[in-house]
Amino acid sequence: MRTWTRSWLSRVRISQVVILLLLAVPLVYAADDGFSTTTNGAESQDDFNHDRNAFSAPDTNDTGLGPVYNARACIDCHQNPVTGAGSQVTEMRVGRFDGTTFTDRPGGSLINDRAINSNIQEFVTDPDNVRTLRLSLSVLGDGYIEAIPDAAILAVRDAQDPAIRGKAIQIPVFEDPGRTRVGRFGWKDQHASLLSFAADAYRNEIGITNPLFPTENTSNGASVAIYDKVDDPEDKAIAGAAFGKDIQSFTNFMRATQVPSAVAPTAANGGQVFLDTGCGTCHQPSFVTAPAGTVLSAGAQPYSVPAVLAGVTIYPYSDFLLHKLGIGDGIKLGDQDGVRPEDQELTRTRTRTPPLWGLRARPRLMHDGTSLTLEDAIQRHGGEASTAVYNFNHLSNSDRAKLLSFLASL
């Protein structure tokens, strides 16, 4: 008995040593996760590095930060796992709904979480009975999305069954007055160009005014002028950047980012299950970008599709349309010139189909970031996605595992 005990104890000690050695050695993962830090060719690597640094540089009170704001730099909300990707950061939106009519709260739906002075800190108030968070999205590959022809998005819409057909809205290209394009950026499709998006976010999220958005946000509808020590617009127009030096750098950076994923459904295990369940109806697998030279904006800062972004097949897994899933955040797109009132109204109960490329790096899902697993997110889909969810719930265990594995690979 003593001999058996000694032998058993020896094996236990050896096992303990092995475990301690394993714990002492850090796990080694593959070095390349597919998220690139190099240019797609739309600008040189040196220019890309410069513009990425501008995207990452924090603003201060001396450069015009705030006076109300959410972040000090673009990278604060877009950096997992590389600059430009998404994050866990959310913004806060509120409004007022009486059962019939939605009304913006004073100062608009955005509630800034931070301020340079406590006297102008914004808060949600009791009358703001519509409240939601919105998760920060990745901007990787957005140059390709910008280059998708309107006609391609509308063709996907027209091919969808009327019962689940998404809505497309025409959005002004702010840098080219009079021009509109199909909205494709943001949870409400509120922007159609990356320069417009950059200008809007710089003013709304960081508080830096620019020639496209030259007026400071308010604090709960009240002026913050006495706290604003930098003349507006704070991001000045200079030669080569008619609408602001920084927003031009942000835009150039986004247009030059590589796609976070290029997985075709037919090339991946589980991709066919994804299509068979109906998920691909809204999460449209692929688009082809417009031909080189296609004019996307003209005027003071013209932009045409460069050759490197032209005629490229991309796999974003989105139709870029607004859908009603029964979990719309309840916030209507704010009034803005160039958007039809009926289009603004339909945004209240709808959200844009988010692209799934880069999904493998997102620990929080859906528009509010409160779904924490892929299955959680799937089960929250309702309304126009009800049939797809029904199909998912009736998959065999094997096919369900294949589908979830496919999503986790994107």
* Structure summary, number of beta strands: 14
Distance between the termini: 57 Å
Portion of residues within helices: 25-40%
Q: Percent of residues in beta strands?
A: 5-15%
Number of domains: 1
The helix tally amounts to 12
Q: Evaluate the radius of gyration.
A: 24 Å
Largest sheet: 4 strands, antiparallel
Spans of at least 5 consecutive residues with low confidence? 1-30
Secondary structure class reads alpha+beta
| Overall 3D shape | globular
Q: Kindly state the mean pLDDT as a whole number?
A: 92
Question: Could you state the order of secondary-structure elements as H and E?
Answer: HHEEEEEEHHEEHHHHEEEEEHEHHH
Oligomer: single chain
Structural account:
This protein has 410 residues and is α+β, with helices and mostly antiparallel strands. The chain has one domain. Helices cover 29% and strands 10% of the residues. It has 12 helices and 14 strands. The strands form 6 sheets. Strands 2, 3, 4 and 6 form a 4-stranded antiparallel β-sheet that branches. It has a two-stranded antiparallel ribbon with strand order 1-5. The longest helix is centred in the N-terminal third of the chain and has 23 residues, at 2-24. The protein is globular and about 65 Å long.
What labels describe this entry?
410 residues, 29% helix, two-stranded antiparallel ribbon, 14 strands, globular, four-stranded antiparallel sheet
In short:
The protein has 410 residues and is of the alpha+beta class. The protein is 29% helix and 10% strand.
